[in-house]
């Protein structure tokens, strides 16, 4: 999956240029205002641990280096603007995100990280986005898919050994009880192959995580569309801070304000994400 996203991110340069995406938003903000929290790792700067390998949430605009873009990156810039501070991205591998937070390399993790009981034992998290499976299909079919039961009897593809593939397999009994045939599931090891399966007509529907699905649509305009509301979100992305940190309520309050004034919705729309998946409390 990582290789697919790296290649896809490289292919997105032109799109981002046309959209006027700028990596400098918030990076030259004035230092401090009445919203600025006191306990930042570096005064006048908010530092985010991030792994830019997961478009459309965070990735390099040129595929391998330079500006970091995506929903999380731009939401971080909006947060920096709200607090009146500069922003720094502390780039680390995915498995280094939590250690980076715990060691004080960054103030928070804003990087497509699910909340889970295990993570909440060692860190705080403010919810920011709901995630879960999404259905992708050719434009003519996408509009006909209103619920997961509409996948019964259809040729469905998902990445091998993924939770999405498991969800489709589990639907078999539900379809049978409803008097319908179980979905006909095909699995491929690479997400790029699952996309091609639908485009080439080997499968009718692709089931993928909603945030990744949004990026796939962006890269295959006119060939794939998202069928909204087929699945209910089943997980939540969070913005993580140190356990018991005074930053925790400040982060939650800031993102609540940014949701209320429409800033987060604009960022979501920019990256082809449905603003209704935003979950800020």
From TrEMBL:
Signal peptide start and end residues: 1-23
Domain Solute-binding protein family 3/N-terminal stretches: 45-275
Keyword Phosphoprotein recorded: no
InterPro entries per the UniProt record, alphabetical: Solute-binding_3/MltF_N
SUPFAM superfamilies (alphabetical): Periplasmic binding protein-like II
Keywords per UniProt: Signal
Protein name, entry field: Solute-binding protein family 3/N-terminal domain-containing protein
